[in-house]
Amino acid sequence: MRKILFGCALAICALGAPAPAMLGIGSALAQSQSGSTDEGPKQIALTKAQIDQYIAAQKDLEAIFADAPENGQGKPDPKTMARLDAAAKKNHFAGYDELNSVAENIGLVLDGVDPKTKKYVGADVVLKQTIADVEADAKMTPAEKKETLAELRGELQAAAPLQFPANIALVVGHYDELAGEEQQKP
User: Fold this and answer.
1) Is pLDDT above 80 for 6?
2) 176: which of 28, 51, 167, 168 is 20 to 30 A away, CA to CA?
3) Is residue 135 part of a domain?
4) What is the span of the domain harbouring residue 85?
5) What is the mean pLDDT of residues 41-57?
6) Residue 1 within any structural domain of the chain
7) What secondary structure, in 3-state letters, does 48-94 show?
C-alpha cells in the first residue's frame, strides 16, 4: 500500500512520533491530537473548498516538516506545532487539527483508489491486491515479507467503509494533485 505524502504523514517522522508503517493519512500524531483511536480517524463530509485549501497548504506544510526537529520522544515540538497551526490558518482552516482531519479523510478515500485506473474500488480491494503483490515479491526477504504482510492484514481487518460516499467524487476529482507525488516515487 502506498504511503500518502500529504504534510500530515510526514509529521510522524519529522516530529519524532512512532511511525505506524503502511498507513495512509492516519498518523500517530493525528490520533493523539484528534482523539482518534484504533477505530481510525473520525470521518467527516468533505467540501471542495476544504480539498482546495488542503492542496494549497501543502507547500507550507512540506517546508515546516523539512525544518522540524526530531525529538524522538513521540511528542511534537511546540514550535513546530505552532508553525503548523499558523500554516493551517493561513489556508483558511480553523487550525492544524481541522487540516489534519481533512487530510485523514482524504487519505481514507485515496487508500481505496486503484492507482492504475484512478477509480475508487475500496480500501479492502486495494489492500488485498497489495497483499497478493507482497506475497509474489521475490525480492523481499522472508522477514520483511512476514512483517509487511502482518501489517497489511492488520490494516485489512481494521478497514472501515466510508461513511460519506460523496467524498469519493471530490477526492478522485483531485487525484493527480493529491496523490501525484506518490505516483512519482519509485
Assistant:
1) no
2) 28
3) yes
4) 6-180
5) 96
6) no
7) HHHHHHHHHHHHHHHHHHHHCCCCCCCCCCHHHHHHHHHHHHHCCCC
